[in-house]
Amino acid sequence: MPKLSHPPLGFRAVSQFFSLTHHQAFPHSSVLPLPIFATMGLKSASPTVLSELWFGIVFHAHLFLLWSLSVASAQEHDYEPPPVPPVDEFRLRRYVSIAVLDNYAYIDGGTIGVRDDGTKYEYSINVTLSLLLNRSWTNETVDFQVIEIEDPKYYLHPLLWPDPETSSIYHWRGSHGIESYEGNSDFKVFKSDGLGGGNWSMKAVANPSVFNGLYRASSGPFTTCNGQGFTMSGLGGELSDERLTGDNVIIPGLVTYEMATSTWANETTESLNYIPWRGRISCLASAGSKGLLAYYGQMRSMDSDAHLQDQEFSTFKNISLYDMATKQWLWQGTSGDAPDPMFAFCSVAVQGQNGTHEIFVFGGTTTESRVLSDVWILTIPGFHWFKLDAQTVPRVDHECALVGKRQMLVVGGRKDWGEDRQTPDPWTQGIGIFDLSAVTWSDKYDADAPEYVSPDMVNDWYSAGGSAKWDSHRVSTLFEASTTQTAQPTDTEVFTGQSDSSNSDSTPIGPIVGGTVGGVTCLVAIIGAVWYLQRRKLDRGLTPGGTDASRTQTGGAKWDKPELSGQGVSPVELEAC
Across 19-163, where does the E strand assignment appear? Predict the structure, then answer.
């Protein structure tokens, strides 16, 4: 079984505080007054410590609210609202997960809030919902199809892996919202009937000894990529796995599931030099030779006995990359207007027509518990952030998914930690739609929207010569391979740490975004430059395949910048087209 890591001191202190008060009704606000710091011996704590302790309070208040609403739902009365209440009775929906399969978006897990019936107004959901995607609708006219689940269990943020090859969705992990989870090996599969319905059943695995050794967890990011399912470290406890008792623990590792063979594996994350958890993972399907995973927004625990000062919030200025071909971790710095450290955001990734990938990040909450309404774009391979002027209602505890050709579906969430849960969600049925190309919000899903194209500010940035400053030759080679279809690189550079500086001295290599950005003029200039350089080599007595002196060290060895080195001589860059 994997080694378990306990959350840092601040998290444990807050968790213990809530365990002492779990029989009392918790107020609507999830943020406690400042005097509580004194009870934890932190009267003179630094601003950084206080900021991170705020996060501990908010995070565990978050967990406590899940527990309290679920227990109340089970004990107070037997009433359960319809999974799709009338618009005038709907209040909120949160903690859901979304999987897109064929022409439907499937929504599973989470809770729903309805108009107060005098006793309770938020309930766990035990059905799956589907939304049709080949027909346009608004959040007022959308038609939810309800899929009943035999012997249902209540899940918050369950893991969903869609498998288009078999018209299936796999279901695992997530926390059980009512009582200690009975069992640890529930792995379910949904078989679609192609009409928005289908059936859930238990799924057999090819290597049960490996699967049974995995702990169930919650708050672990997940994605699918080129026929495999992935999920990163999560938070484990008795609400997720009956083998876990006492305080919540961080369960490290990258769990993989190969859909074609139903085979599980637990890959190490030791090369990251920290224990990652939370955050989001996106699939870069065409990058590298077999695809890459981009991991961002994670928290970092340094060891199993980490104290509060050792707990770190990863900045968005660096992106961790997992090479699916070599199973190695690397990293790459970013430029531009990156988000500040935050959690409980959502994201989608989409591939552009010119060889780019764009990752859209929406909402979330800062370490000071400020809920955000912002949208950011990270473009790859430029690794540059853009903050959009596309404000909407702040969101936390929401989920999003790529639907149609160019739209982001956002489901659920709430706009403030201290929000009265009887206040109706400003979004009808808790649904919002964001056009990824036009970068505008709407209440309408457009089934006839054209293909995705990168937003204007992204294209303008590349056209002006924007490019990544690679932090390693290994990373740059991966993106060159993904666009030129070259063989898999043979160098063995791997991730050995993480820096928060994006000002590397590594060579700027222009992004490979196709002819749509440079045009014919740039192509002609490149051909001329190549001819000129080859002529110079011949004039110096070098064959076209010879070694360029600017890439050698004194002893004649080929120059190759170390993985995390900030040194080295950058060759002169040709003027951009």
Answer: 90-94, 97-101, 104-108, 111-114, 122-124, 127-132, 137-138, 144-148, 155-156, 159-163
